[in-house]
Structure formats: structure tokens, C-alpha cells
Amino acid sequence: MAQLVSRRYIAAAVAALLALGAVSSCASPAPSGTDSASAAASSSVTASADNPFGLKDGSVIDAVVFDGGYKTDYVDFAGQVLQKKFPGVTVNVTASTEISAEMQPRFVGGNPPDLLDNQGAQTIPMTSIISQLATWDNLWAANTYEGVPIKDAVLSGVKETGTYDGRFLVMPYVMTVWAFYYSQSLFDANGWTPPKTWDDALTLCDQAKAKDLYLFTWGKEAASYWKYLAMDSANKQGGSDVTQNIINLKPGAWSDPTMKAVLDKFKAVVDKGCFIPGGAGTQFTQAQAQWSNDQKALMYFTGSWIENEMAKATADNFKMTAWPALVLDEATAKVPFAAVDAGASENFVLPAQGANVAGAQELMRAMLSKEAASNFAKSRLAPTIVKDTVPADGFGSTALASTSALLETSGDNTFTWAATNYDNYYGIATDSLVLWNSFLSGEKSVDDLIKGEEDLNAKAAANTDIPKMTWNV
Fold this sequence. Notes:
Blueprint: E1 60-66, H1 73-85, E2 90-96, H2 99-109, E3 115-117, H3 126-129, E4 133-134, H4 137-141, H5 150-153, H6 158-161, E5 163-164, E6 167-168, E7 170-183, H7 184-190, H8 198-209, H9 224-238, H10 240-247, H11 257-271, H12 284-292, E8 299-303, H13 306-309, E9 320-323, E10 341-351, H14 357-367, H15 370-380, H16 398-410, H17 422-425, H18 429-440, H19 446-462
Parallel strand pairs: 1-2, 1-3
Antiparallel strand pairs: 3-10, 4-10, 5-6, 7-8, 7-9, 7-10
Helix pairs in contact: 1-14, 1-15, 8-11, 9-10, 9-11, 18-19
């Protein structure tokens, strides 16, 4: 499961996998802290063009990386790239699935890791560590290992994505696309066409049932994926204000007519029995395997990490293929059906009190090298923020190639809200997950779901302990 927590993005022209376009975005949360850019000098070594951060020979770099859908060995690989330039430096990469529980005590104790991949369902809220982070400004001003300025080597919008209250505190590494994924070979064998509208989905559900199959599936930890689908659908049908009002906690936003119309159609899908039953009691990777390995469900809405995450539980000749989120009516949708939800994620932060801040920056510079970024794309079947690192054939991956095609077709209509996961920021994600598990199980009506989400948003709006953000989709 790749992380469900990220910052806020506006995606304009996305380019990416095939050197297509770019994602532009910005974030400006309210909290601010002491700028720690000066912490980059963690050794007495004089900085130079070849050693821009003054990395000390013989030093050790302590990196903690979220062990999710992308695993952690891509950072080990980058460490090996670094060691070609700095053979005396040791890179220690520690995997973690409990970032908050394991890392917050280290921040409190003044001994955080040098580099932290702040990801996963248990991410550390930025509000609790923002004053303890150094900026990435020195890295931004440096060159890649290929001699290209880092700011020119990556997709546009990266710095804006990671900027908080005017400080560049988060370096996102991976381009994530939210979409349906399905087996092209299974669809071809049955003469099926992926749905564009919710009514199309209901028709396909009937076709699946005729084969003793289901249209969709879900797992208890990932019920929120389907919330993202509903919000993406409403965003495309009614325009960005629909979703923007929700994530900005506007009262009554969940009751917007477009959102309610989407949820009514969603409810029809649920009530028709289009989901494999029992998802609220099924671990999410087991639910995903019902789709990718057992092929009992036709489609699954998720992030573009899915092929890598399910690599060991995918049927032969599956030909995993990406498809955009549904709309109510393609003719009246304010955002074209072809638009996709995409943004930069997998967020690395630079603790100011790390023992080797220079080493953390050098490790990130190695991660942004063509060698390391190409390795990630090829081994994880997902693109990084580094330009020109994925070939046209997607390294033989139909998922990566089709995701690339979605991005290209989406172009300037690309948007992002899902990666923001505002409900995690405001501490209402767990309660929202309960709501969606109940809704997908058929236990809650649309009115119940709307009231539940409205109550959670009101709770977040009333919480004065968490600074409010203003997001744009």
C-alpha cells in the first residue's frame, strides 16, 4: 500500500513517464518554524562542485524509508551510486512501516535519522515536526551527478509541492497516478469495454455477473481508495470547486448536488452487488489479489504503485492496464473524462538535528541521478520526478505504458486532490475509513455517508489545535 498521506498539489501539465509534461503545484500550510537551512553544513569539509554539501569521508548516513508498495531497496541502490563518488561513506537504510510510532520519539529525543521517507498510514503529521526540519534549498541549488541543475532535471512543480509556509521542506520522489486498473487480456477475451460512466459500470457489472464475477473489490485498510474515486468523479463532473470545498472544510460541501449524484450512483453499484462481499473484513492485499491473481473482480481503483505491490500475486498474462475515473455524463462533465488525478509523492524530509545532514542531502542527490531514477522506474514500474527516465515501452510493463498514455492524454486537464489526503492532516482519516467500509458493505445510505463526512469535516474545522490549510485542486 503506497502512502495515503501527502501534501497538496495542483497538477497542471503533467509530463513524466515519457518526458511528457510536468506537474505544477504548491502548498502553503499555516505553521512555520525556525529555518534550519544552515544545518546543511554537518561536517567541517569545505563544499565544492563535486561535494556541494561538504560530505565527510568515513561518515555514516542514516536513512529511514517507508516499507510500502515501493519497498526500500531503491534507496540502497542510490546509496551504491553515492558510494561510487564517496567510497568511504556508509549508507544505512532502515525499513519501517510504523513511521510515526518509531520516529516521533527520535525527533523528541533530538536524534532523528539523517533522511526520512515520511510515508504510510502512520506518517508523522507535518505540524508536529515542521520546526525541526531543514530546507532542501542547498540541494535545489546543486547539480545532479550528470551535471544538470537539479531544478532543471526534475518535473516542474516539485519545489512548490514541497513548500510549507514559504519553506521547501519536502522532497517528493515518485509520480503517482490514481486510476482504475484492469486486465486487458481478460477484457479482450470477453469482449468487454472499460466503463466511462457510472451507468456503464452498472452494465459491466451485469456482464461480470453473467460470468460469476464481480466488478470491483476492496479491503478494509484501503476503503478510502473508493472515497478518492467518488471525489475524483465529482471533481470531473462538477468542476474543481466540488472537491476543493470538501478539502477546505466548507460546511455542506459533501452535500453538493454533484457529489450527491455521484454517491447515489455509487450506492446503486453497491446495492447491485458489484463488489465482492466481505471487504470490510478482508486485508487489503488479499482483496487486491482477488482482482489481480484470482480475477474474480474486473477492476480496481488505486495508485500507480499497484503493479509493483502485487507483483507476486498477479495472474500470468494479466496485461495490467490503467483507465480514468468515471463521470456521470461525459457530455456534461466540466473536466474531460480523460483527465486523471496525478501528483508527486513519496515525501522525503531532512531533519535539522540529523547527525549527517550533508550525507542526507548527498543521498537524495544520488537518488535524483539518472542511474538511480531509471532503476526505480524499471524495478518499481513507476516513474520518479526525474525527467527522461522511462522508455516508450514502459520497460515492457503494460501498466506503466498505459499510465504514461493516460498522463499524456490528460495533459493540462490533470488534477490532484487525492494525494493530499486532507483527512489525515486533520486527524479524521480513521473515522472516515470506518464510514466507507460501512458504505461499501451496504450498511449506510448516501445520506448516512454524507452526514458522517460532514460531521467529520465540522470536527476538523472546530479543532483549533491544527492550523488550517487552504488547498486548490
